[in-house]
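Researcher: Please translate sequence to C-alpha cells.
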Amino acid sequence: ATITILKPGSDTLTVSSYVDAREQKIISIKISSGHQLFATVHKKNRRFNPRINQIEMPDSTFDGPFGDSLHYQIKMPGVYKFRIGPDLMADGSREGEFIFKAWVK
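Model: Translation complete:
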C-alpha cells in the first residue's frame, strides 16, 4: 500500500477510488506531527453510500465504525490506516466510486 505523508496545516490528501461490496479500500497516511486528524469520504454517484469503517492506529489498535467524516485526536506519530467501504446500514448500492480527503492540524 502506498503511504502518504501529511504535514499539519499544509497538506491535504485527496484520493479518488472505487469499492465494491466484497472489499474495503485501505488508505495509509504517515503522520509525524500535529494534534488533530480530519477525514471525509464522499460518494461520486448518487446511489452509493461510503463510510470510514475503521481507522488503524500506529500501535495496531482500531477504532470505528465512523460515518462519512471523522475528527480524531492524534495520540502518537506513525502510520494511520483508513478502511473505506459501503455503509451496510444505508439504502443504495453496495459499490461505487468515492473521494477521500484527509488533513492534519
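Researcher: Any highlights?
Model: The longest strand covers residues 78-86.
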